[in-house]
Amino acid sequence: MGSVISSDHHDDGGSSSSSSSPGLGDIPESCISSLLMNFDPPDICKLARVNRAFHRASSADFIWESKLPSTYKFLAQKVLSDHDIETMTKKEIYAKLCHPNLIHGSTKEIWLDKCSGQVCLLISSKSLKITGIDDRRYWNYIPTDESRFGSIAYLQQMWWVEVVGEVELEFPIGTYSLFFRLQLGKASKRLGRRVCNVAQVHGWDIKPVRFQLSTSDGHKSLTEYFLNKSGEWAHYHVGDFVVESPNKPIKIKFSLAQIDCTHSKGGLSVDCAFICPK
């Protein structure tokens, strides 16, 4: 038996050197494809390296169409041209959608989770409605390599702080979580090392920040946190929502607010909001 396995390996999956001893290369590709449908995409890609037959079988359209969410056409239309959708194989479409893709004027980044097929979405600070963002006495956009979008919104000082986001998308069935990525302080590089200036950080320990989420199909969430992690990025969980009806756009509205005008707040960096499978 050892000689048969060795022969199959050297022949890269071709017919076995012994006609009486079938090997992996003798399995019909249609059978291999049917078998591969039972694996997750990362495992399919690993099995494609077994031999040539597995490699060819792993590219079957019906395998990858079964891994794509029912809403994939909605997403594909946002990141691919009509010509690409018509000419690319389902495997190529799957691979493209699993890579981060910038949409909406490069203010959002979207991709599919490779294992679950659910949607992940990043929403940049420039895609959020920020009270006072056009007044440089209060807010500034600061370029940084610490953001996927190349810049963050930085609050110097203000009494009324409110950041609101809204997105409408077809999500595959599942439970999703929404977070804000925030930092107290302004990070920069000094002599090649990261430093974070926290001199303007104030007011966040007096009253909590209120985070809210609501969806067009009735899900609501409200949480409150004191912001107390100076000098490092932190993810603040806004809430969860459940998608039960596929192929139907859902509108999500979310916000953070600290509007107690008895004290000013400052030193807050806002990178993005993001949605991911729970």
TrEMBL record:
Give the region (Disordered) as residue ranges.
1-25
Locate the F-box domain: which residues?
21-67
Q: What CDD domains would the database entry show?
A: F-box_AtSKIP3-like
Q: List the Pfam families.
A: PP2
This one is known as: F-box domain-containing protein
Origin species, per record, is Acacia crassicarpa
